[in-house]
Design goal:
The chain is of the alpha/beta class and 420 residues long. Helices cover 14% and strands 14% of the residues. The protein is built from four helices and 17 strands. Strand 2, helix 3 and strand 3 form a beta-alpha-beta unit. Helix 2 packs antiparallel against helix 3.
Length: 420
């Protein structure tokens, strides 16, 4: 009987080579094709964006810097800021739209000062986060209805009258309507994420729609001459900056609970009583220029105050300022203030305007070595010798005074520009 060789569990060399060339599994083929497609897409996409950018450059667009997201902003995709040539028309914008859609990441588009009067071609631009239409003839905003990524919109000096198209843009954080014909703010009721709102020189009268904007930090109503009632603002606890210049308001009681307010502008208003400001300890800027205010005792506890404008008010006594050690800029021009002794300890003061006041003596200023600008024009000041030690002065205005020792001052302050 023939001998049968013993069996072996090790494959022969021929078997090994054969197994290497077995037909691959279907799933492996699919995975390979998918991987290849991904590689191709990654390689082609930048090429497409680059070609789109070249086309936009030929159409008159230039690249700029993106707006600052702030130090606490969460990391997001790369941003591209584009500014259009002033000669751009609506037809040119329509030609650019297909290329704008091919760009990657966040897009900020500046069309300010162009000939554009229609933005209909932007209605599919999903990545648009910022749009500036300043000084264009745009009036219809319907194209923006579905641009959910939009968080900043500037309509300054446009022909816009209705903002109803913005009603669904709940991601909007900054809206500039300065110098437009807008009067109705109902569309803003649901924009609860709004942080900055500029309504200067608009036709706005009713502010009720602002009650539901809990995160609003900056509100500008300067020149909105129809505004008389600011009661709705009492609910805006997040407000930091409020501009009410040249409005028709007379009473600011509605502001007394806005304890975090840092800047308040009441220039050229009929406001007389600033008592509601007594508990605003965070206030850093207060502008009362041209108001009816005579008594400023309410701000004696505003220890964070840095800028105070009392020009053209009825203020005569400034004793309330004695403790405002952080004060840097003080404007008392065109007031009946005569005694400035209260300023003697305000060593952080950098700018002081006493233009057309009744101040005769400047002795109180001799220790204010941080002063950089001092305006004494058209005052009855006669002796300016106390100013000799103010070597930090960059500008000293003395015309219209009775000062007789100006030459001594010039010699003592050779680096100071003295207008005499």
């Amino acid at each position: 009987m023939a001998e049968i060789p013993p069996s072996s569990t090790q494959p022969t060399a021929e078997h090994a080579r054969a197994s290497m060339w077995r037909r691959p599994k279907p799933w492996a083929i699919g995975a390979g094709i998918l991987l290849l497609l991904v590689i191709l897409l990654v390689a082609i996409k930048p090429f497409g964006a680059s070609r789109a950018m070249r086309a936009l450059t030929e159409l008159g667009f230039s690249q700029g810097a993106c707006s600052d997201d702030g130090p606490t902003a969460a990391p997001r995709s790369e941003c591209l800021a584009l500014r259009a040539n002033p000669a751009l028309t609506s037809a040119g914008l329509a030609a650019a739209a297909p290329y704008l859609e091919k760009l990657d990441g966040r897009l900020e588009l500046n069309l300010a000062g162009t000939e554009v009067d229609s933005i209909e071609s932007l209605n599919g631009l999903d990545g648009l986060e910022s749009l500036d239409l300043t000084s264009t003839r745009v009036w219809n905003l319907d194209a923006l209805k579905k641009l959910s990524s939009l968080n900043r919109l500037v309509l300054h000096r446009t022909d816009v009258q209705s903002i109803s198209a913005l009603k669904g843009l709940t991601g909007l954080q900054s809206l500039n309507l300065w110098d437009t014909r807008v009067s109705n703010l109902d569309a803003l009721k649901d924009l609860s994420d709004l942080r900055q709102l500029d309504l200067r020189d608009t036709q706005v009268r009713d502010l009720d729609a602002l009650v539901d904007l809990p995160h609003l930090e900056t509100l500008k109503l300067g020149g909105a001459r129809n505004v008389r009632n600011i009661a709705p603002l009492s609910q805006l606890g997040s407000l930091r900056t409020l501009d009410l210049n040249e409005t028709q308001i007379e009473n600011i009681d509605a502001l007394k609970k806005l304890h975090d307010l840092q800047a308040l502008y009441l220039a050229n208003t009929a406001v007389r009583n600033i008592g509601p400001l007594a508990d605003m300890h965070a206030l850093k800027t207060l502008v009362l220029d041209g108001s009816k205010v005579a008594n400023i005792d309410a701000i004696q506890s505003s220890l964070q105050m840095e800028t105070l404008v009392l020009a053209r008010t009825q203020v005569e006594s400034i004793d309330a300022l004695k403790g405002l050690k952080n004060l840097r800029r003080l404007n008392l021009a065109d007031t009946d203030v005569e005694n400035i002794d209260a300023l003697s300890a305000l060593t952080n003061l950098q700018m002081l305007n006493l233009f057309r006041t009744r101040v005769r003596s400047v002795d109180a200023l001799k220790g204010l070595t941080g002063l950089q600008e001092l305006y004494l024009a058209n005052t009855p000041v006669e002796d300016v010798a106390p100013l000799k030690r103010l070597t930090g002065l960059r500008e000293l205005v003395l015309y219209g005074t009775r000062a007789s020792n100006v030459d001594d001052i010039k010699a003592a302050l050779p680096k100071t520009r003295i207008v005499w």
